[in-house]
Amino acid sequence: MGEPNSDAVPDADWMDLLTKARSGDKPALDKLLTVARDFVTNLVKLERGRTGGVDYSGVVQDALLRAFKSLDGFRGNTVGELKAWVRKTANRVLIDTRKKASRDAHAMIQVSESGQEQVLDRCPSPSSVVSTNQEAQRVRDAVAQLPDDWRRVIQLRFFEEKPWSEIAQDF
Fold this sequence. Notes:
The protein is mainly alpha-helical.
């Protein structure tokens, strides 16, 4: 697959990384995230045949985001517990994603008064996609021009969803 297999990372390293990440070690958190990403990717790829057209890379990203946002809530003390917790989170995201895809598919079909089914087009127009991409690029360019501290505040608030009170303590 080209990606390292998380099983190649010794269990002791998982727990060492977790302990360091919990104490605020950013490089350890980054490494734990990488190891967990590989683990979740492998889990979700095993489900690929049953994903029903769901984008598994989005599931991996959502599962990791959900798991690491709630890392403080993890109370386990073993690698098995950590992997089970991550697996459970990934499974919940996969189930939620499948349900949403199913609802979306049903919402796209409309029955007319004559009883005929019509498929509704819910895709954005090409011009709205271009407009959205251009706006996103303008925002990225503007954020890149900000001083480091300001960029960090934006990252904490809008990407890590930290409360203002916690952000203020960092500064």
